[in-house]
Model the fold of this input.
Amino acid sequence: MPADCEFLARLFFETIHSVNAADYSDEQLWAWAPGSRDLFTWHKSFMGHKTLVAVEDGAITGFGDIDSTGYLDRLFVRKDRQGLGIASALCSRLEEGFARVLTRSSITAKPFFLNRGYKVISEMQAVRSGISLTNFLMEKTTEHRQSDD
Done:
């Protein structure tokens, strides 16, 4: 994974600057994904979470991670691999075992999460480098039915 962090950071940057460009201004995109990441901090974060990386023909096509409380931190798919089920597959695996999952969704990803059964708890403003970005705190709960046996 340490060797992959640089590629994951590049995938993160490219995805945000292309896929999210319809919903956020250039100023917001650069505040969110400035082009450089503290790779040591990212690696440490990935190692503390359940982290999955999607690979297709030897190339990383997406990644996601969730912490032990059920907070889905990151879920990104390469800009040229959008809409192929990669995010759904990653998300399904990450959600396994949690009765409740929380995430902060971008405007762009909100329909994806709504289609997966997430509900909007609140609209929020994240501030990055003094720039405000709209996102949504979203929650998915799984009801466990008890058997009558």
Observations:
- The first helix runs from residue 2 to 19.
